[in-house]
Design brief:
By secondary structure, this protein is of the alpha+beta class. Helix content is 25%, strand content 30%.
């Protein structure tokens, strides 16, 4: 059993990128599905597919995105911010900016999971889950 599923998700992505894999398979949950959708919308991954929907053994297959010539990944850094032992919350005024706006912070708000920019526009704060750049 994994005590921090988001950290496990990010670590599996990090390891797949380091090994230059094209596809990574991750056990699914509602939160991981939402994070995957945000990564796809912002262009950090090529595609995704939810497998075995409706069964106990659900998984997410993520196609990682690389530059066609240089083979450099679209994701350069994945960092977990808020952990089960130390939750990190941010109000609208204290909302983090990753790489001065070039990266994204994924925030869990009362209105659902969203990026730091969307949270600023909706004027809501929340728990800072991770930074992606």
């Amino acid at each position: 059993m994994v005590t921090d599923p988001i950290a496990d998700y990010l670590t599996r992505m990090r390891n797949a990128i380091a090994a230059k894999h094209r596809v990574v398979e991750i056990p699914a949950s509602k939160l991981k599905k939402e994070i995957t959708k945000i990564l796809f919308e912002k262009g950090y991954i090529l595609n995704y597919k939810f497998e075995n929907e409706g069964t106990k053994e659900q998984s997410i297959k993520i196609a990682l995105k690389y530059h066609p010539v240089t083979k450099i990944s679209a994701i350069s850094d994945l960092k977990r911010v808020s952990t089960p032992g130390l939750r990190q919350y941010a109000s609208v005024d204290e909302m983090p900016r990753v790489m001065n706006g070039l990266g994204i912070a994924i925030i869990s708000t009362s209105k659902g999971l969203m990026t730091d920019k969307e949270a600023r526009n909706l004027n809501v704060g929340g728990e800072v889950l991770c930074y992606i750049s």
